[in-house]
Design brief:
The chain has 182 residues and is of the alpha+beta class. Helix content is 29%, strand content 27%. Helix 1 crosses helix 4.
Length: 182
C-alpha cells in the first residue's frame, strides 16, 4: 500500500459516529453521551492535567501525550480522544500499517470510573471501522501491559498472539471478528 492520505475531519466524524452507534446498540444509555474526536492541542492540554497512575499500573500509562500528539499527526497514525458528557475519559494512538491498525497507546483517565471498562472496546471498535473503510484486514493491540493481556483478549475475538521470550508483544485479530459490515 502506498502513502495513505490523512483522514478528513468529515470522514473521521462519520467513522466515529458509526462506531458510537454500533457500541451503543448494546449500551443505549450512552447513546447521546459519548463522543470521539481527533486528538487536538486542546485535548492534549486536558489530558496533561490527569493524575499519574503509572505506579499503580506497573509503570504503564506514563506517556507524554503532548509528544505523541505532535510526533503522530502524520497520515500513518490515528489519534483520538473518547469523551463522556464532554469530558475526555480516554485517549488512543494507533499506527496505520500496510494491512493493520495497531493500537499502540491507550489510556483511561486516572481516578475516574465513568468509562472504566469502556475505553478499550470503543477504541477497538473505532479502529476496526477505520480499518474496514481503508480496506485493511486486521486490528491489533501492540505491546500490551502484561497484567491486562487477558482483558484485552476479550475484545479481540479470534485473536492470535505474537510472543517474544514468553511476553505477549501483540494481540491481533481480523476486522470481521470485531465488526460485521452490512
Amino acid at each position: 500500500m502506498g502513502a495513505m492520505a490523512a483522514i478528513s475531519e468529515d470522514d473521521f466524524r462519520e467513522i466515529s459516529n458509526y462506531a458510537i452507534q454500533v457500541y451503543c446498540q448494546d449500551f443505549p444509555a450512552f447513546s447521546d453521551r459519548i463522543s470521539i474526536e481527533k486528538l487536538s492541542a486542546r485535548s492534549v492540554a486536558a489530558i496533561s492535567e490527569w493524575p499519574d497512575v503509572a505506579d499503580a499500573k506497573d509503570g504503564y500509562g506514563r506517556w507524554d501525550w503532548t509528544a505523541i500528539y505532535f510526533d503522530r499527526r502524520k497520515s500513518k497514525f490515528i489519534n483520538f480522544s473518547i469523551s463522556l458528557d464532554g469530558v475526555i475519559e480516554g485517549v488512543v494512538s494507533a499506527r496505520i500499517e500496510a494491512s493493520n491498525i495497531a493500537i499502540e497507546f491507550i489510556q483511561r483517565k486516572g481516578g475516574s470510573d465513568a468509562m472504566k471498562g469502556r475505553i478499550t472496546p470503543i477504541a477497538v471498535l473505532l479502529s476496526a471501522v477505520f480499518a474496514y473503510t481503508k480496506e485493511l484486514s486486521t486490528v491489533s493491540i501492540d505491546k500490551p501491559a502484561p497484567f491486562i493481556v487477558d482483558y484485552y483478549k476479550t475484545y479481540l475475538s479470534g485473536y492470535s498472539l505474537e510472543l517474544h521470550d514468553e511476553l505477549v508483544t501483540k494481540i491481533i485479530t481480523r476486522v470481521e471478528n470485531i465488526i460485521r459490515p452490512q
